[in-house]
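C-alpha cells for chain A. Residues wanted.
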C-alpha cells in the first residue's frame, strides 16, 4: 500500500494549528494526505498524516495464528515507541522509516468511524467478531486528539457487533460508558498488555506508554464496572524480564488488579522490529547481544523449550494467586444478549503478533 491509495479526497494543508506540507511530496502526494504538527508538549516532534481511507475492516491472512478473522486499525505508527513492536515493518509499506519514523510519523484514518458504520450496515456483513489493537494501539496518545474510538465503539454497539480491544493505553477509560453499553447487547472482550512491572525496564523499552501500574488500574476499574479484563503478559523479555522474582511480581500485581486471565507471550523479533530492538540492546545491554543472536538464530521466535518454560512458570504463578491461564472469557457473564439468550464466551484476544 502506498500513500496515493489511502485517500478519496484531496487534503488541505495550512489549516489552523497545522503546518503546510512541504512542496516536495514525493512520498505522500498532495492529493493523498494532510500533514499536521501540533505545538502542544505531548505532541512535540510528532507528525500526523491525516488520510481518508477507502476501507477500515481488514481480513486477517488465512495463514495467521490469530483467533479472529477481522480487524480495525484506525492508526498506523505508534507514539508508545515500544522498541520491540512487530508493527514497525508495516511503516515500510508506506515508504516510512521503521525506527524513529514509526514512533513519530502517525497515520490517522480520520474517516474510520463513518467507514465502519457503513461496513456494518452492509447486507454482506455477517456480524463477525472484530479485533482492535492488533497492529498498533488504538488508544495511543493520538486518540486523545482525534477521538476516533468513540465513533467506532458507537457503531459496533448500534449494530450489536462483537469486538475485542487490546491496549496499553489508559485512555480506554474515557470510553467506559460506551463499553458498558456495548456489553449490554454484544460480546465485548478487553485485554490490557502488561509484560512486566519493573519500572526501569518499562522506561527504556516502552517509553511512550503509561506505567504498568496505571495499566493495571485500568483492569481494576473495568472490573469494578462489570467489564471483565484479561492481561496479555507480553512481552516477557529474555534475560531482562524473565527472572523468577520478576514473573512472580508481575503475576501477583495482575491478580491483585482483578484480571480474569493472564496470558504470557515471549518476545518475538520480526524483521523491522528485530533490527531496531538489537540496536537498542547494543546501546543499553551490549553484553546480551550475542545471547540474543544465538537465541533468535532460528528466526523470529524464541526456542520452543524457552516459551514453554515461561508459560509453565506463569500458569503456575497464576494458579497460586487465584487466576487461571489465558483463554477464559473477558465478558460480563451476568448479562445476556439483546435477544435474551445466553451469550457465547469470546476468548480473551491473544494477539500473538502485536508484541
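Reply:
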Amino acid at each position: 500500500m502506498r500513500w496515493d491509495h489511502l485517500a478519496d479526497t484531496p487534503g488541505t494543508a495550512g489549516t489552523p494549528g497545522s503546518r503546510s506540507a512541504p512542496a516536495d511530496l514525493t512520498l505522500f502526494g498532495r492529493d493523498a494526505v494532510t500533514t499536521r504538527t501540533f505545538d502542544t508538549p505531548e505532541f512535540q516532534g510528532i507528525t500526523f498524516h491525516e488520510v481518508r481511507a477507502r476501507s477500515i475492516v481488514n481480513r486477517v491472512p488465512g495463514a495467521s495464528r490469530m483467533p479472529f478473522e477481522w480487524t480495525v486499525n484506525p492508526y498506523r505508527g505508534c507514539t508508545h515507541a515500544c522498541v520491540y513492536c512487530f508493527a514497525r515493518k508495516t511503516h515500510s509499506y508506506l515508504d516510512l522509516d521503521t525506527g524513529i519514523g514509526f514512533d513519530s510519523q502517525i497515520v490517522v484514518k480520520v474517516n474510520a468511524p463513518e467507514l465502519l458504520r457503513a461496513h456494518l450496515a452492509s447486507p454482506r456483513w455477517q456480524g463477525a467478531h472484530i479485533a482492535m489493537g492488533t497492529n498498533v494501539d488504538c488508544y495511543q496518545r493520538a486518540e486523545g486528539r482525534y477521538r476516533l474510538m468513540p465513533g467506532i465503539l458507537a457503531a459496533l454497539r448500534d449494530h450489536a457487533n462483537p469486538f475485542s480491544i487490546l491496549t496499553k493505553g489508559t485512555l480506554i477509560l474515557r470510553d467506559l460508558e460506551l463499553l458498558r453499553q456495548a456489553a449490554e447487547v454484544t460480546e465485548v472482550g478487553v485485554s490490557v498488555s502488561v509484560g512486566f512491572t519493573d519500572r526501569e525496564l518499562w522506561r527504556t523499552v516502552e517509553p511512550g506508554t503509561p506505567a504498568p501500574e496505571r495499566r493495571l488500574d485500568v483492569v481494576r476499574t473495568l472490573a469494578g464496572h462489570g467489564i471483565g479484563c484479561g492481561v496479555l503478559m507480553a512481552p516477557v523479555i529474555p534475560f531482562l524480564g524473565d527472572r523468577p522474582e520478576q514473573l512472580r511480581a508481575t503475576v501477583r500485581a495482575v491478580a491483585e488488579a482483578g484480571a480474569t486471565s493472564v496470558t504470557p507471550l515471549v518476545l518475538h523479533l520480526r524483521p523491522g522490529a528485530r533490527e531496531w530492538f538489537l540496536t537498542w540492546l547494543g546501546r543499553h545491554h551490549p553484553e546480551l547481544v550475542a545471547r540474543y543472536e544465538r537465541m533468535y538464530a532460528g528466526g523470529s521466535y524464541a526456542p520452543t523449550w524457552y516459551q514453554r518454560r515461561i508459560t509453565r512458570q506463569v500458569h503456575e504463578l497464576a494458579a497460586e494467586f487465584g487466576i487461571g491461564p489465558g483463554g477464559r472469557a473477558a465478558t460480563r457473564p451476568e448479562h445476556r444478549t439483546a435477544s435474551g439468550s445466553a451469550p457465547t464466551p469470546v476468548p480473551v484476544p491473544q494477539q500473538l503478533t502485536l508484541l
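The CA atoms of residues 50 and 108 lie 5 Å apart. Residues 5-30, 325-355 have pLDDT under 50 and may be disordered.
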